[in-house]
């Protein structure tokens, strides 16, 4: 499954600042069972808007990680929180199938 959220960067902070915090927290979170990686993307034409994607083997494994309080992750999030607005976009199942044109 995928968990997506929108990150809006406030004045006085940069996407690069947030990316540092994202990498720190992700390194810890990705040790949880079922974690399959994360991505952070900058919106074209707006370097203050990012989309974050966390990949998990299942919703149950992601939920289990959320219920395990990690002081280090909580501290990283708390330090970044005043500088960003985060809007969850939702949890999405992996598609049953994906159609992609052949590579050239």
UniProtKB/TrEMBL annotation:
Alphabetical UniProt keywords: Monooxygenase, Oxidoreductase
InterPro entries: ABM_dom, Dimeric_a/b-barrel
rRNA-binding found in the keyword field: no
Record-linked Gene3D superfamilies: 3.30.70.100
Pfam families assigned: ABM
Ranges where the ABM domain occurs: 10-78
SUPFAM superfamilies noted in UniProt: Dimeric alpha+beta barrel
GO MF, one annotated term: monooxygenase activity
Protein name as annotated: Antibiotic biosynthesis monooxygenase
